[in-house]
TrEMBL record:
It catalyses: ATP + protein L-histidine = ADP + protein N-phospho-L-histidine. GO terms for molecular function: ATP binding; phosphorelay sensor kinase activity. Its EC number is 2.7.13.3. NCBIfam families: sensory_box. It comes from the Bacteria. Residues 101-153, 225-278 form the PAC domain. This is histidine kinase. PROSITE patterns: HIS_KIN, PAC, PAS. Residues 43-74, 147-201 form the PAS domain. Keywords: ATP-binding, Kinase, Nucleotide-binding, Phosphoprotein, Transferase, Two-component regulatory system. CDD domains: HATPase, HisKA, PAS. Residues 291-496 form the Histidine kinase domain. Pfam families: HATPase_c, HisKA, PAS_3, PAS_4.
């Protein structure tokens, strides 16, 4: 139709050429436009069903089909199979509404080779505002796409999230890592602004919102911005730490031209920094403890003996003197924890049955559990699970953890302890309580020196537990349990033949971590042996 109309117009102008001298110039202008279109652009016209009614010379040249082979066909004849059905559904929805559509399409020529075209489809509307045909203008961009694909291949090997935006904040290019994190289809994001993507059904809106805030700031300040950002992953409300680098691209006159965005996941690095900071604090405390703990304990013992003697001599003051003795016992307990944190001069490890240690601890806490109406249930899958350890330190480890659980259940509840053998040669001691759980903002700080949520706490208990577990080559995990409660898991290496022959301490250095993981309720594989308190 388009070509026929051009020829019809040209025929009319030829007839009028002798009547009006200006017609000749119009004819030349029309011929020049038609020639320019054939040289520069691929032009095609389809009806509302997508059937091709006109193609220009450039279309035939690029597709390698003759005009008569294309007329009456749809564009499926050059479909490369590269794009998804959703891509074309979006295109058809747009033009059927009478709106102009623009996008990049990879087509296949008759000989099987591929070529890329930057496409604009313009709906022609009737008097009712409904499309009656579509005119498409395509510019060949194969070379640029090949360069972009080489760049994309390079970016695909990068674990970082990378995006390139134009001066209007529209996404031009993004690597697979970013598309996967945000949940974008590779055919659907190009040319769209951050605002458009935020209104779409994507999973990574937290990152898009962060990018939008940072982009506005980078363009306003016109300098590279490097900051740390906590970004939600959308899975169980967990987050990861990213180092966000935004580089604004500016024109000579300072106007914004584009932006390069790079997000590097530094979550594990931040965890390691946290562990190192905590290790430094523990080392400092240990050094202090080794120097003063023994000096403190000797005067404390003398004061305690004096108070006991005074209680016998002055019975009327016994209540006050006993209170003072209790406070001295608390100070002595703190000194004991400091001594555990200090590097032992020569701690001899021996074979220790885990069940024996837990039995002693349960007996020690039996009275407190009954007062608080807490039922302690210990499930044993293997009574003979043995580790290489220091009995008194292991007793203090489980005593601290169980006391924390009891203190979380002031009005009663149940403490479930499961002792089992893992598949990787570790003894697992799992403790699950019915308490309120740990606030999310507190969970990452557990184990920090002197951090406590208890009115009379010292912040040394969990830190001591971490030190003991680390010295035994194990790991400690603390997590909230849904819908409420806390799940603590201690993993210790099972004693193997030959381990007792090794001198000195058990090799340590395994990672000890606190993870905000959602624990899943009761353990399913309960063993045959049970102890109750």
């Amino acid at each position: 139709m388009f070509g026929n109309r051009l020829h019809q117009i040209e025929s009319v102008l030829l007839q009028l050429k002798n009547v009006d001298p200006h017609v000749g110039s119009l004819l030349r202008e029309l011929s020049d436009i038609n020639g320019a279109l054939d040289e520069a652009l691929i032009v095609a016209i389809t009806d509302v069903r997508g059937v091709i009614t006109y193609v220009n010379r450039k279309f035939c040249e690029m597709s390698q089909y003759k005009a008569e082979e294309l007329i009456g066909q749809t564009h499926r004849i050059v479909n490369s199979g590269y794009h998804s059905k959703a891509f074309f559904r979006d295109m058809w929805r747009t033009i059927a509404r009478g709106q102009i559509w623009r996008g990049e399409i990879r087509n296949r020529a008759k000989d099987g080779t591929y070529y890329w075209v930057d496409t604009i489809i313009v709906p022609c509307l009737d008097a009712r505002g409904k499309p009656y045909q579509y005119i498409s203008f395509r510019n060949v961009v194969t070379h640029r796409k090949e360069v972009e694909e080489r760049l994309q291949t390079l970016l695909a090997t990068m674990p970082d999230l990378v995006a390139f935006l134009d001066g209007e904040g529209r996404l031009l290019q993004a690597n697979d890592a970013l598309l996967h994190f945000v949940g974008l289809d590779r055919d659907m994001y190009r040319g769209r602004s951050i605002e458009e993507l935020l209104s779409a059904e994507v999973s990574g809106k937290a990152l898009l919102r962060d990018l939008k805030r940072g982009m506005d700031e980078a363009w306003e300040r016109k300098t590279t911005q490097i900051v740390e950002s906590w970004i939600s992953t959308g899975e169980d409300d967990s987050s990861r730490v990213f180092e966000r680098t935004l580089v604004p691209v500016l024109e000579v006159d300072g106007q914004k031209s584009g932006l390069v965005a790079l997000y590097r996941d530094i979550t594990e690095q931040k965890k390691m920094e946290w562990f190192l900071r905590r290790a430094d604090k523990i080392s400092a405390i240990a050094e202090m403890a080794a120097g003063i703990a023994h000096e403190i304990r000797n005067p404390l013992a003398a004061i305690r003996w004096s108070l006991e003697a005074m209680a016998l001599r002055f019975p009327e003051a016994k209540k006050e003197l006993c209170a003072m003795t209790d406070e001295l016992a608390r100070v002595d307990s703190i000194v004991g924890e400091l001594l555990v944190l200090a590097k032992p001069a020569d701690v001899q490890f021996e074979a220790v049955r885990v069940v024996d240690v837990l039995e002693v601890v349960c007996l020690l806490l039996q009275s407190q559990a009954r007062k608080q109406k807490v039922k302690i249930q210990v499930v044993i899958q293997d009574h003979d699970l043995t580790v290489l350890g220091q009995p008194s330190h292991l007793k203090q480890l489980f005593l601290n953890l169980m006391k924390n659980a009891l203190e979380a259940m002031r009005t009663g509840g149940e403490l479930e302890i499961d002792i089992r053998n893992s598949n990787d040669d570790y003894v697992i001691v799992s403790m699950v309580d019915d308490g309120p759980g740990i606030p999310p903002e507190v969970l990452p700080r557990l184990g920090e020196p002197f951090f406590t949520t208890k009115p009379n706490g010292t912040g040394l208990g969990l830190m001591t537990c971490h030190k003991i577990v680390r010295d035994h080559g194990g790991s400690l995990h603390i997590a909230n349990r849904k819908p409420h409660g806390t799940h603590v898991e201690v993993r210790l290496p099972i004693l193997k033949d030959g381990m007792l022959k090794r001198s000195g301490k058990c090799a340590s250095g395994n990672e000890v971590s606190i993870e905000a993981l959602a624990a899943g309720g009761r353990s399913e594989a309960w063993g045959h042996g049970k102890m109750r308190a």
